Amino acid sequence: MSTGYETGTLGSIAGLARTRAADGGSTYLGLRPRFIAIGLAGGLLSGLLGVGGGIVMVPLLVLWTAYRQRDAHAISLGAIIPISCASVITFGAAGQVRPFDALALAAGSIAGARVGAGALSRIEERPLKLVFGLFLAAVAVLMLVRS
Amino acid sequence: MNGMALIAALVGFGVVTGAASGLLGVGGGTLMVPFLTLAAGLSQHAAEATSLLVVLPTAIVASLVLRRRGVGDLGLALRFGALGAVGGVLGALLALALPGHVLRLVFACFLLLVSVRLVRDSLFER
Q1: CA distance A124 to A130
Q2: B81 to A80: CB separation less than 8 angstroms, yes or no
Q3: DSSP 8-state class, residue A31
Q4: Residue A128 near residue A69, CB atoms below 8 Å
Q5: If we measure between CA atoms, which residue out of B113, B83, B63 comes closest to residue A59?
Q6: Does A129 reach chain B within 8 Å, measured CB to CB?
Q7: pTM across the whole model
Q8: What does the pLDDT look like over B6-27, one tens digit per residue?
Q9: Burial B2-32, CB ≥16 within 10 A → b, else e
Q10: DSSP letter at A18?
């Protein structure tokens, strides 16, 4: 017998993936419904707008979850790994990649990433909000100018 | 730019982008694509494809550092990102059918509102 709301194929699939979290709330494949919404929306918007996932995900995480700014940035960085893997597979195969430019940039950015991530783990919440807010404002102005 | 100067500029810009991306929690494509088109002379498509290849190792290194420091939740982030990848494919397909400039306009306004709120919170709250 059905439990009432898990009807149809979609309901059955969701039911299979559903587990109980420690506090009694439902999770699907270990994710809260709100995270599923933000994950899908973040990917959808970044695909639609041609911007990186981080610019979409960090604001959504900060506004709609209880995560602090610092953790939202860290989760966004981790989420970029599978997202950029998928993009490299779909777009990178088109043969437009310039390997030497990528190698030189990556050599620098790997060193820079250690510095930036180290700074993220130490910075106070308020200056981080300020820096990220100003960065978003700059990106928004650039988008407005171009569109 | 000659060969050596270009390589030095790319590595130097990489350091700046990597540091910004580790701190801001973004991939860095927003910074790299304009640099690659304007300074290194790549086409828009080549710049986008090339920057994607740099974003991946940058995000991996930053995530490993943050995991060691106990910031965020990498397991959650990876599952979350897998959904984002699915959404990204849908978004790219939808983008072909929807007016891109209108969407960008709406989203830019959303970003402006968020940035005002973040700056206000950081300056005036408690």
Answers
A1: 10
A2: yes
A3: B
A4: yes
A5: B113
A6: yes
A7: 0.84
A8: 899 999 999 999 999 999 999 8
A9: eeeebbebbbebbbbbbbbbbbbbbbbbbbb
A10: E
